[in-house]
Amino acid sequence: MPESEDYMKKQIQEILKGLSPDERDLLWRVVKAERDKLHMKNPRGINDDIRRAVTEIVKKLPE
Question: Residues 18-59: pLDDT tens digits?
């Protein structure tokens, strides 16, 4: 792996380590929604999936 890829991988790992559990959950739900739609020529509903994930995460946050 070229040096720049190693640097990027380390940077990504540092960012992921700094995420709260809720942020991590949201990230993975967005990634899953995108993966689920990758095979589609015209992916419909991705915005709704992401909006639903954000809404559910925000609702469970303490006030």
Answer: 999 999 999 999 999 999 998 888 888 899 999 999 999 999
Q: Give the whole-angstrom CA distance, residue 52 versus residue 30.
A: 10
Taking the model in full, what pTM does it have? 0.75
Nearest to 46 by CA among 31, 58, 59, 60: 31
d(C-alpha 44, C-alpha 55), whole Å: 19
Cα separation, 23 vs 29, in Å, equals: 10
DSSP 1: -
Q: What is the pLDDT of residues 20-30, one digit of tens each?
A: 999 999 999 99
